[in-house]
Design a protein that fits this description.
Elements lengths: L2 E5 L3 H13 L3 E5 L2 H10 L3 E6 L8 H10 L7 E6 L4 H10 L3 E4 L4 H11 L4
Parallel strand pairs: 1-2, 1-3, 3-4, 4-5
Helix pairs in contact: 2-3
Length: 123
């Protein structure tokens, strides 16, 4: 069983993503913002997948993404931005900063599942 981390300031969104991930066989951890997510990562070195919102207080998803990708010990973690941020520049910025995939909200279970299965093929 792989561990996944859901990072979103919306409890409702975290619950939806958690439910879908658990149905796919993941053990799911949660964080409300990037700073909390960094702490969860430090405490759980076996996390394989992160679903990451862009707009959050304290530390947003883009800042968190850059911090994770600066640390070589987290190079293998798959990161998917799951966000309402739909500007083409933002999508490009996230991919250039190290996001492996990008999913726009709102999404359904099938859309999320398809992208996760694609991301996790190598594991």
């Amino acid at each position: 069983m792989y561990k996944a981390l859901v990072v979103d300031d919306s409890k409702a969104i975290r619950q939806i993503e958690k439910k879908y991930l658990e149905e796919l066989g993941f053990e799911v951890l949660e964080a409300e913002h990037g700073e909390e997510a960094l702490q969860v990562l430090e405490e759980n070195p076996d996390i394989k997948l992160i679903l990451l919102d862009w707009h959050m207080p304290v530390m947003n998803g883009y800042e968190f993404l850059k911090k994770v990708r600066e640390n070589p010990k987290w190079n293998e973690i798959k990161i998917m931005m799951v966000t309402t941020e739909n500007q083409q520049k933002s999508v490009i910025d996230a991919i250039m900063a190290g996001a492996n995939e990008y999913l726009m909200k709102p999404f359904d279970k099938e859309m999320l599942e398809t992208k996760i299965k694609y991301l996790m093929e190598g594991f």
